[in-house]
Amino acid sequence: MKNDAKGADTRLNEIHFGQALIEEMFRAGVHYGYSKTRRHPSVSSFIYATKNKGDIIDLEKTSQMLGGAMEFVKGLGAKGKTILLVGTKPEAQAAIKSGAETLGMPHVTERWIGGTISNFGEIKSRINELENYRKESREGGLEKYTKKERVVMAKKMEKLVKYYGGLVGLKKIPDALYIVDARSEHIALTEAIGGGVPVVALVNSDSNIKDIAYPILGNDASVPSINLFTALIVGAYKEGLATLAVPNPTSEKKEA
């Protein structure tokens, strides 16, 4: 099984919501929850069993949650909406970056900057600053500064690239978020909920799923698990996006 976010459209066509998907999730270790003592009450009905003090997630129920999430994301793609992909833990960074680049969508793989949603105006000013610097650099405009000034600017831009580089091109508050490990990304989750931005989130058994619009219960600490879900979410968006470019025959007849 490939453990990357590329080829998501092929994967989407191959996997059906049945035994094949459950078997793939099992191979990716999706069923491994945390210890029973860490279980959040909101996920109790999604736990299949407890073995060696660890919770085993019911993959049939995870498959149902995934189906709902993918339908939502497919709808985003069909409308050309913006989805911000978020995953700052080391296990998630590669999949999030790859998935975002595949879709041409913004992403956060370093620290979530407080205010990204709740104070977007300030965040947008930082993005603009980075974009302007890059434009000036391409056009040779930095030559007017002294060597010392250029060194200072370069250091500042290096920091902006690290924390805002993935947000370049984001013109407004995103229409939705895809989050890996909502518990770790609690600030992003809180801002999204407060701002009325729907969230699709891969969560483990220690998470409160009550306020998450589209939770997907599964192992959020395993690279294969993270890659599998991210690939499927990316594939769902691409499938929806493909319909955006397809003209509606009914509409064409009416226009004719």
UniProtKB/TrEMBL annotation:
InterPro entries: Ribosomal_uS2, Ribosomal_uS2_bac/mit/plastid, Ribosomal_uS2_flav_dom_sf
Any GO molecular function: structural constituent of ribosome
Gene Ontology biological process terms in this record: translation
Protein name (database record): Small ribosomal subunit protein uS2
NCBIfam families linked: rpsB_bact
HAMAP family according to UniProt: Ribosomal_uS2_B
Keyword Phosphoprotein belongs to the record: no
